[in-house]
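Annex B. Sample input.
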Amino acid sequence: MTEQTVGLRSLLELLRSQLDPGVWWPAETRFEILVGAILTQNTSWNNVEIAIANLKTASLMTAEKLSAAPPDTVAELIRPAGYYNSKTVYLHNACHWYNKNDTDAAQYTTPELRESLLAVRGIGAETADDILLYAYDRGVFIYDLYARRLLKAAGFGDFKTYQSAKQRVDPLVTAADFTVAELAELHGLIVCAGKRARQLGGWETAYPLLINGEFNR
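Annex B, continued. Sample output.
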């Protein structure tokens, strides 16, 4: 296993100094964040933006209107995001959760809110944490594939699953004392860095460049 070379906060500073992630998460409302978190499963964000634009054009970007829309209509609107029949069902389930829980979400602890999200069919660990961080300002780290690849390159461990990474690294996230804004920024930076690393041939080649300040040259 690669020896750990930097701490999480140092990793944030390295990424900050060499990349600009733009705006994360791009959305106008909490509900739009929830919709985007579901639509982005197994597809690119560009495809999600098209699907979201379609829903907005159809005036369906509220939980009440989206849940009342015919499934065939929703499926056609979100077709660009792929898996549109399954995601139509997932969005309907998410609408029900949102209508029931959004108003009182502040009263839940983060573990309680996460557990309620995970009980919704179509919302897994990564999607739940996306929603927690960006819609409800909860301090969680997103252990997506981009993050796990970077964590491996930095020597934190070779994590095959979301949960294994979360279990091992969450104590380090807590110790780093990140703000919610920093965690949101870090997620955006990690995604941006992952795309750049792919252009460079993978993290085995790219990580030394990141450490040496030559990542984006």
